[in-house]
Specification:
Blueprint lengths: L10 E3 L24 E4 L2 E6 L2 E6 L5 E7 L2 E2 L14 E6 L10 H4 L4 E4 L4 E4 L8 E9 L5 E10 L5 E12 L3 E5 L11 E2 L3 E2 L3 E5 L10 E5 L5 E6 L2 E6 L15 E5 L5 E7 L3 E3 L3 E13 L6 H15 L3
Parallel strand pairs: 14-17
Antiparallel strand pairs: 1-23, 2-3, 3-4, 4-5, 5-6, 7-12, 8-9, 9-10, 10-11, 11-23, 12-21, 12-22, 13-16, 13-18, 15-16, 17-20, 18-19, 19-23, 20-21
Protein name: DUF4380 domain-containing protein
InterPro entries: DUF4380
Organism: Gilvimarinus japonicus
Amino acid sequence: MRLCPLIIVVIMIVGCGPAPSSATSPSAGQAVTPPDYVTLSPNSIKFRRGDLTLNINPAAGGRISSLRFAGKERLITQREAKGNNWGSVLWPSPQQSWGWPPPATLDSKPYQVSVTETGVRLSSEIDPELKVSFTKHYRLGDIANTLVATYRITNHADQAVTLAPWEITRLPAAGAVFFPTGETEPVKGQFASLPLTAVDNISWFDYPANGIGPDNHKLMTDGEEGWLAYHNNDWLLVKVFDDVPSQLMAPGEGEIEVYANGENTYIELEQQGFLTTLMPGQALAWQVVWVCDRAAPNTDRTTLIKRARTLAGRARTL
């Protein structure tokens, strides 16, 4: 990955506390009306517009718990999963800083909710071990069938913390994953390797019709252009984010990561942001845009790549 001089913009100075937890605007006592696509209930937040319906679960780490596109569920939901391996979550990277399982404060415990003029903000407590908190702001983009997620990680420790943001999205064990090939060779960590093919500088993984098991498989590598795509049956998902130079990937990790479990029940579409050192009270901000699009099951690779690049370009205007 080529080093980009704009990487310094990922750090911003903020107060040491988590984001406000009450459903009020920045002006004290003034209520905020949520956007017309938002429906709030005690245990769920629903976004609905066009072909896209999203559910966010504040009680389970503020995660995206459901994504329905064109009338069909697209994520691995809690009903289909074992443990907490469902929906879409945010983790701190590198994993070597916390091991396993993920910090419950950030991954699965309740988040506080506040309404903004453009969407919804969810705020975690401070993790007692890592001394960081997460804020997740979700809104629908002005382009059809787009979700804009803006993540913030704040350092509450009395010393510097070095980490990167890491979004993990659980999807059905089927279809294809593809992304622009970066500068580093894929690594697998403690898992079996995930086979890739090359298509015009695009790294491509087709999920085998007979499954990937019995071993768990993983790839971690650099990417280019700042996008990662998934095609399954009649839809295309493109995640769009800031391109990360290989020099600024978290140690032992990758800008692009894909995991396939040995039980052949789900895959994880993952990407990471810049490795950043936060001084006490500092935070990093990271934006990820999801773009959903209809795509025929028999769409050829060249067409899918061209479409993904077009959607990624549009998403960068949000």
